[in-house]
Every structure is written in structure tokens, then in C-alpha cells.
Amino acid sequence: MSAAGGVFEQRTRTAAGAPATGEEETSVTAQQQPADPAAQVGRVIKSEAEWRAQLSPEEYHVLREAGTERPFTGEYTDTTTEGVYRCRACSAELFRSDTKFESHCGWPSFFTPLAEERVRYVEDLSMGVRRTEVRCARCDSHLGHVFSGEGYDTPTDLRYCINSVSLTLEPASQA
């Protein structure tokens, strides 16, 4: 994932989205950064019971089990409000509204994160295709996936396809 920079972790995921067990789990750094970029933004670690108590069932499914909300149903799919998008689980600032664009894919799309150390990348081999999962570097919650080379007229040629349920929007008037 050199186009996006940051840390790229190669990890095989099962069809259900859970990490596979065994020796297939490895870590690869795409560019020179600390081994754990999450340390830069204050790591949040909770038990699964704590996450279940904090999150709704849908939020838990997407954020903690790498699920996906149905397309065109999310709260922020068509939102044009200026502000900062935060991780719903830990409130880390992840994306700014000025990087959001209309991709007509059914989920909010951004062309870059607020800062590379705010997200991490995991190779996702589920669904029979190679994709790059995007996770919150602070709490390790699943956000969505990033795609490149799709022809969108953006500065990065990247599309961060993010589940609305993974985010909260702090309008600019409150920021």
C-alpha cells in the first residue's frame, strides 16, 4: 500500500472476516515509521465485553468484527457538512470533510486520511479478492477499505470507502 504510505500489515482474514490463525500473520512496514504507529495517537485497549457495552450491535459488528453496513443506508453517505470525522469507538480524528467526495458507491468516500499515523492497513483476502482494510490506529476498529486506480479525479487516486457506522461527524461550527 505504498501509494497511501503508513504501515501496512499483511494478515490473512477468513471469509467471515476474522483473522486466520497460524503462521500466515506477518507485518510489513511500507515506509520508515515506528513499529506501532498507534502509539503516536494514544492507544485505546478494551476487552470485548467493554466494547459490547459501549457500542450498539451494528456498531460492534462493523467496528470489532470487520462487518460492513448495507450500501446507501449510512448516516454520512450523502452528507456535505463541513467538519471532522472521528472514529465512533475511540473519537480519534480520522478524516476531514474537505477530503470527502461523491463516489456513488454507497458509502462515504475520502481521498486521504487526516494523517497517515491515524490509520493502519491490513491485507484482506476475504470475499475471494485481495483488498486493503483500513483500521483505526488508536483502537484497532475496522473502518472500511481503501482502493486505488479507479479513475476518480482526486489528488491521490485513492478511495477510502468507510462505513458510516464507524464514524461520528463533528461539524466545523463545533470543532
TrEMBL record:
Reaction catalysis annotation: L-methionyl-[protein] + [thioredoxin]-disulfide + H2O = L-methionyl-(R)-S-oxide-[protein] + [thioredoxin]-dithiol
Residue ranges of every copy of the MsrB domain listed in the record: 48-172
Disordered: region residues: 1-41
InterPro entries attached to this UniProt entry: Met_Sox_Rdtase_MsrB (IPR028427), Met_Sox_Rdtase_MsrB_dom (IPR002579), Mss4-like_sf (IPR011057)
One example GO MF annotation: metal ion binding
Keyword Kinase: no
Compositionally biased residues, Low complexity: 30-40
A Pfam cross-reference name: SelR
Catalytic EC class: oxidoreductase
Keywords: Metal-binding, Oxidoreductase, Zinc
GO cellular component assignments: cytoplasm
Cofactors (names): Zn(2+)
E.C. number(s) listed in UniProt: 1.8.4.12
One GO BP annotation of this record: response to oxidative stress
Name by which UniProt lists this protein: peptide-methionine (R)-S-oxide reductase
